[in-house]
From TrEMBL:
Region (Disordered): 88-148, 331-369
Residue ranges, compositional bias (Basic and acidic residues): 95-105
Regions of compositional bias (Low complexity) in chain numbering: 106-136, 331-343, 358-369
Top-rank lineage group of the source organism: Eukaryota
N-terminal signal peptide: none
Residue ranges that the Swiss-Prot or TrEMBL entry lists as coiled coil: 7-45
Species of origin: Tetradesmus obliquus
UniProt keyword annotations, A-Z: Coiled coil
Polar residues: compositionally biased ranges: 344-357
Name of the protein this chain belongs to: Uncharacterized protein
Length: 478
């Protein structure tokens, strides 16, 4: 009997041990899966970050020769990697190409003539059809084919920035910009209508549907208008009119009224109507996480400089008020000194005795003046002049100190303003890069539908990426 009791205890102990080990194994497996998932995300974000840096480095190479001002040179030094890093990346890419591991270079080389041809057509006329989009159209009719080729996330960014910028934007108003944008959206809405009608006819096997040539024309027109829109945004940046871009993202193109902030619910509804695939959502979410990391240091420095500028403005206002009070006090002292001198000559009407006395006083004054000229009584006169000069210096000393402090504050404010201007332009370039990335993750048809459904407002890429990221994360948790 004791033998069976010991066996039962041993079996129970072994069972508990097995269950404990099983729990540890399950926890290790879950931890391993989480680490693998985190590793995949980090690798993807690293590749995106490298692609973003390569795109900004390409921009430095394209515009470095045009940076004439010190501000632009400083900006270009801060938005990308150094030339040595780019050279090393190019050497690594060439080695990978020789080993046969990189299959995206041939596609990029094939698309280069098409991009150049489309760039020339866009720069010459907004109504000329772009070349090199037929293959994208065929694939897009079968499924969502992204505008940017696989493995080249900054393709659309580079394509747009390689085009000649739009000229004559210095006098452009917000009304003119909204009118131009409205015209683009109207044309793209017509293309979207034809595209959907052709897709419905093809699905219904209707032989009287739209021919393939019509689909090619629609895709060409959409591609041209999207590139025109992005090129206009970049041209406004070059013309230092970034405030127009910010206004366009918040303005109602019909009434020209501005929103306080972008309509997140409207963006979420539009995103749900685009038919984004899970892969597209994952790409947009990953790019948005990287974009926030890139943008965070610039925003933090901007916030700090704005706080310093607010404090400096308050201090400058206090110094200016103190200076005004000192000036008022000085004016009052001068008025008090002038009042006795104005009252002495007009004390009474002159008589013969007073005139005789004044003549004697004049003779005495001339005699004392001649004695002073001869060297008599010169020491008291110099002492009085020195005392008067010291008094005047004491009166003006606070004014001089206030002026020096004011000049120092002014120089510091100018330095902060110049730095804020550089950071704002840097922030715009980062946002332009993210805009090209987000639009590149969509097909041309999805981009056109995005703008049409958002009208009368213009889609804000950061807000659109936010709602897509939130939807993707909620779906992943479910």
């Amino acid at each position: 009997m004791p033998r069976f009791a010991n066996a039962e205890k041993t079996r129970k102990r072994n069972t508990d041990l097995i269950q404990k080990l099983q729990r540890l194994l399950n926890a290790s497996i879950n931890s391993h899966n989480n680490l693998q998932q985190e590793n995949r995300l980090l690798q993807q974000e690293f590749q995106l970050l490298k692609s973003f840096c390569d795109g900004l480095e390409w921009l430095i190479q394209q515009t470095g020769s045009q940076a004439d001002t010190a501000e632009e040179q400083l900006l270009l030094q801060q938005v990308g990697l150094h030339m040595e890093a780019r050279t090393a990346a190019m050497q690594a890419e060439a080695a990978a190409r020789r080993s046969g591991t990189d299959d995206t270079s041939s596609r990029t080389a094939t698309d280069a003539p098409d991009r150049a041809g489309s760039s020339n057509s866009l720069s010459s006329s907004g109504d000329a059809a772009g070349s090199g989009s037929g293959s994208d159209v065929d694939a897009e009719r079968d499924g969502p084919q992204t505008a940017a080729p696989a493995g080249d996330v900054t393709w659309l960014f580079r394509r747009v920035l390689a085009m000649p910028p739009v000229q004559g934007l210095e006098a452009l108003s917000l009304a003119d910009l909204t009118k131009e944008y409205t015209g683009m959206v109207k044309e793209m809405s017509l293309c979207v209508h034809f595209h959907e009608a052709a897709a419905a006819s093809k699905q219904a096997n209707d032989p009287s549907g739209y021919p393939a040539a019509s689909g090619l024309w629609q895709a060409d027109r959409i591609e041209i208008n999207i590139c025109r829109f992005l090129l206009m945004m970049y041209s406004l940046y070059l013309a230092k009119r970034q405030e127009l871009v910010q206004a366009l993202l918040l303005v109602n193109c019909d009434s020209l009224t501005l929103l306080q902030e972008p309509d997140k619910q409207h963006h979420a509804w539009v995103a749900s109507q685009l038919g984004l695939s899970s892969e597209q959502q994952q790409q947009i979410a990953a790019g948005f996480r990287v974009f926030k990391r890139i943008l965070r240091p610039t925003l933090e420095e901007l916030k700090q400089l704005q706080l310093e500028q607010t404090g400096a403005e308050a201090a400058a206002a206090a110094i200016q008020m103190e200076q005004q009070q000192l000036l008022l006090l000085q004016q009052r002292q001068q008025e008090k000194q002038q009042q006795p001198q104005q009252q002495r000559p007009s004390s009474a009407t002159p008589t013969s005795d007073s005139m005789q006395g004044s003549d004697d006083a004049a003779i005495a004054a001339s005699s004392s003046a001649s004695n002073a000229a001869a060297g008599e009584g010169s020491v008291p006169s110099l002492a009085a002049a020195a005392a008067q000069g010291a008094a005047m210096s004491a009166e003006f000393a606070p004014l001089s100190a206030a002026h020096v402090a004011y000049r120092q504050r002014l120089d510091e404010q100018e330095r902060r303003s110049a730095r804020i201007s550089v950071l704002l332009r840097k922030d715009f370039l980062h946002r332009m890069l993210h805009t090209g990335y987000v639009y590149g993750c969509l097909s041309w048809y999805q981009q056109a539908k995005l703008m049409c459904l958002m009208f009368p407002y213009c889609p804000m890429p950061a807000c659109f990426a936010t709602v897509v990221t939130e939807a993707f994360e909620q779906a992943a948790k479910a």
